[in-house]
Amino acid sequence: MMTNRGAGPERAGANILSVDNLTVALPEAGDREFAVSGVSFRIAAGETLCLVGESGSGKTVIADAIMGMLPPQLSVDSGIVRLEGEKLPPQRAAAFNAIRGRRMAIIFQDAVASLDPVQRVGRQLEEILAVHAVPRREWRGRIMDMLEAVRLPDPKNTFRAYPHQLSGGQAQRIVIAGALLLNPVLLIADEPTTAVDVTTQAEILKLISALQRERDASVLFITHDFGVVSEIADRICVMKDGELVEFGTADAILGSPRHAYTRKLLAAAVHSGKSTAGADGKPVLEADRLELSYRLGNMLERRYVHAVRDISLELREGQTLGIVGESGSGKSSVARCLLRLEKPDSGIIRFRGKDVTSIAGRELRELRARIQIVLQDPFSALNPRQKIRSAVAEGPIIHGHRRNDALRRADRLLRLTGLSEQAADRYPHEFSGGQRQRICIARALAVDPEVLIADEAVSALDVSIRAQILDLFRDLQRELGFAMLFITHDLSVAAAISDDILVIKDGAVVEAGPVQDVFGRPRSAYTRELLAAAPRFGGTAQA
Amino acid sequence: MTAFIAFKIFRAVVTLLVTVTLVFVFIRFSGDPAAALAPPDAPQEIIDQYAKAMGLDKPLWQQYAGYLGGIFRGDFGYSIHTGKSALTLFAERLPATLRLGGTALLIAILLGIPLGSVAALNRRTLLDRCVMAFSVFAFAMPNFLFGLIMILTGALVFNTYLGGSSGAGSWAGVLPPALTLGLAAMGSFARFARSSLLETINKPFMRAAEARGVPFLRRLVRHAAPNAAIPLVTLIGLSLGGLIAGSVVTEQVFAWPGVGQLLVRSVATRDIATVQFIVLAVAFTMVLANLMVDLLYLVIDPRIRAK
């Protein structure tokens, strides 16, 4: 659903926002001189402009500068920002308070975190009206209308709810309601769907488009995901290292990108199908009718969450099995059972045909060396005070390898994962997210595992990096021959890497089979829903 | 939520029971009270008589049962030296201690929280560094040292004695010991307030409030303060719990006629009933303060209410 409502010079007279030659200086010790340099663009009334780029490209700095909320260590070097033709006050000026929330509004990535945890949602919406001097008698009516406009099912109860009682999707609707409460002419959306699953993402995108049309607002939409861009953009600005590298209508850029960087980002977002590898290896890891419940609450009041329901799976040598589901579907609980971090309530786990469901002590330690995991967040997964070589070599040393052998192997793995020679002697904070994930992969592979479990291992990475890491997983698998269990909420990732797919919902398997069958001819309604919700190009059903 | 409260109360009662038992056990193990009471070279018969009068000749479990039963009847035993009940002795001393501790806590809160907040809002400036240096100093310096310096200054410069029972009667008299106690506590309040407020003002919801056009002062009062107050409630609760026991050293230094002084004397003279009662009273206030903090959390943090 690509919309293109009259962008371009013919609407130049009705510019809502104009940014002219904006340059923002970084503090002196930064890795480059300017966070944003010489950026100019305009947004016409009722138009959606997408600002696309990877993290660190300067997108968010632009949003902050427009809102007058640049952090004190950044300063505007030159450039003028105008809202409806009127020059905005200097950064952080008190005069901005009358503009923010009334004439322009912003929504952030993490909606739940954008709400004060100890104040009812309704109070926080009322506050917006209060600080912008709306008479008290209008509050209730305006808020209820707005809550209905953002399609919240139960406005009355939502009004009384605290933020922690809302889901990510509901919280994002509340935040959008707050942003549009005073009918601002400009809405800035800074990665508003990055933290939610695909189904919610589709709903939120639809909602923003619909509200924008109803209220004739302009939208500046910031994202790194070209899938999202293709759904909502009228015009697109592509940013790299603080500069605007390409600029044009959505049709032009999506159809025939000129800049190499744009092509790279686009390629990363397009789903690449994968041919099924030989599926006749011996089973390495099997699970038979696993059940797992978590007990919550205290000793007087017990509640149970049934996280895994009757899940069976089989992972063969050299195979990649993708486990797909939304957050909370039980994907990670399955992984925790297989790693024996969680003891299943019932069911059997076999490794190489041997029952390992309740082994302990030495046997369990040996098993752990043969099943390794790579986690989502490469930032918290590494000890900040441990050098990379030692982090990678630690596993083999613990499992009884000679120190020198382990260190040599660590160096080899770091090379295999595409890191330079010098990397081994540095500390984790010196690396980017993608590089850290390479380190985590090298560390997992250091003990020469037969099974590698990747739990949302690329979800925290930018799209172009994501594609590189997926390639790395594939190359390493070919070279080292391990079997892989790839857990993800992202269908395009699952499609790109898996031989077979297991779709999970509420802890139970909804659909299973080879990737072409599951994504090409989905049998269950839930899989079709997921596929429909995933933003993608060309509209082909083939993932 | 009812289950949460019931559980907390149940836990408080269990804690108290354990404390009562430990007090009983430790006092029995710390030497024979009858021997300590009797004159230094009294013959064994005299010691035995003392023991019999105090019920120490009975088997241990009977003593324990009698002791527990006494507590439930509100009978906490009698001081061997004065013949008064332990409860009466304690009650005589309590007002002086509460006045001292209360004033000290007030000083700590009223100085510490604003200082910490100012430091947080002026982070990494000279002001911040001075406030933090001062609070570390106040926190690290031993109570008695500051007290002694104050008494010395009073005596040498102003020719008065800043302490003693006479001072306990007036509000001016309470200030020197209260300052001694309060300044130390102020240090922790300032540090706690600073780190808590700093953490809160950097939360995304503070930025989101700014983006909605909420002015600075309102953001601070309506959003930052309630969120930053949550850990401070714990600290205030713990300080309230330590009100009785916290001033033992300071009371000694200023010859303040409070519970702390009574405790030191009773321990020195092995006045079992009084020591037992004071330890119980300290444990009770601590447990009660903790319970109050838990219940207060329900009021100020909706996330806990939900559990």
Range of helix content of chain A:
25-40%
> Strands across the major sheet of chain A, in which order?
6-7-8-3-9-10
CATH class category of the domain at 93-305 in chain B: Mainly Alpha
Through-space gap between termini of chain B: 7 Å
Count of alpha/pi helices of chain A: 18
Distance between the termini of chain A: 18 Å
How would you describe this protein?
- The complex is a heterodimer of chains A (543) and B (307).
- Chain A has helices at residues 59-67, 121-131, 136-149, 155-160, 168-180, 198-215, 226-232, 250-255, 260-269, 331-338, 361-370, 388-398, 403-416, 433-445, 463-480, 491-497, 515-520, 525-533; strands at residues 15-25, 34-44, 48-52, 75-83, 86-87, 104-107, 186-190, 218-223, 235-240, 243-249, 283-297, 302-316, 320-324, 346-351, 354-355, 371-374, 451-455, 483-488, 500-505, 508-514.
- Chain A is an alpha/beta fold and 543 residues long.
- In chain A, the strands form 4 sheets. Chain A has a 6-stranded mixed sheet with strand order 6-7-8-3-9-10, with helices on both faces. A 6-stranded mixed sheet of chain A has the order 16-17-18-13-19-20, with helices on both faces. In chain A, strands 2-1-4-5 form a 4-stranded antiparallel sheet, covered by helices on one side.
- In chain A, strand 14 (346-351) and strand 15 form a beta hairpin.
- Residues 1-12, 271-279 and 537-543 of chain A have low confidence and may be disordered.
- Chain B has 14 helices and no strands.
- In chain B, 35% of the residues are buried.
- Chain B is 77% helix and 0% strand.
- Chain B is mainly α.
- Chain B has a domain at 93-305: Orthogonal Bundle (MetI-like fold).
Q: Which terms would index this structure?
A:
heterodimer, A: 543 residues, alpha/beta, six-stranded mixed sheet, 18 helices, 35% helix, disordered C terminus, B: 307 residues, mainly alpha, MetI-like fold, 14 helices, 77% helix, flat
Give a quick summary of the entry:
The complex is a heterodimer of chains A (543) and B (307). With 543 residues, chain A is an alpha/beta fold.
